[in-house]
Amino acid sequence: MAYHVQSQNLCVKPTPYSNRLLQVTISKEGVAQFLKEIEIYPVQALEYKSFLRFRVAQILDQICDHQLKPFLERALGDRNAGALLVNPEGINRAEQGDEMVKIATAFVHLIGRSNFDQMTGQYYARWAVLNTDNSDSYLRKPDKPLELHNDGTYVNEVTDYVLMYKIDEQNMEGGDSQLLHLDDWEELDKFYNHHMAKRVMRWAAPPSKNVTQDVYHPVFEADSHAKPVMLYIDQFAQPKDYEEGVYLADLGDSLESSKHKLSFPVPVGQFLLINNLFWLHGRDKFKPHAGLRRELMRQRGYFSFSTNPFSRYKNFKNF
Questions:
Q1: Which of 54, 178, 262, 272 has its CA 20 to 30 A from that of 38?
Q2: Its domain of life (predicted)?
């Protein structure tokens, strides 16, 4: 399906990195109009009153001539696409972080709802990567790559989408975003048809995630069209035996060595929004620098227009 949308405030076209990854631009005038109309809703209001997240989504869609919502549903549900690089023009400075939260909130609440993020206690998470780090996962470690994975592997919530927003960066070299579409992975058939692919395994998070309950699900499932979908992360898998451990180690090596892995910079003020079921994401390591700093924002949640095949493993509550 070809995606070329052009209106007064919305433009969609393929990126140079992949035809599957679409560049979505909201005009500077459209962004300014959106932020003006939602001045009455500070971020705290969006935190306290969850229905206001849908109100700001409605306003953004109106500014985009009601083309944004149907486009997002089509593109994010399309297995041949499912990944967006979004540029809200004119919002690209760290002091505009609250505006970025509002823009991200509007986007994702056109397609579903963001889950509670236990790491920060809100429906979104903001954090910084610095030159030195003593945390208990690779999320904040600049000298290590964040290997390809899916989000939502260790929580009892359906995670259909992931949004990753770059708020700020200083003294940065390296740290490119990385993506891999399942259908472009050379050894998908080998691992999907392996007898371990559907075995229910245990997944557990470190203390910083503020999740105390282990979850259980397989690495692979099939969607409504019998296509493979995935729920995997290297850091939080807890194999119970040799067979599970070797399968997971081989799978991780295969993902990282794929020649179809995309690697590209995301400019400050832009964000990635991907279908979490058939796209994996990660990050390359940074070159050390005493003043290194990158601030990020995350939202992840469920689609309201489709069903997730992993939901039978989850204690998911419909709203």
A1: 272
A2: Bacteria
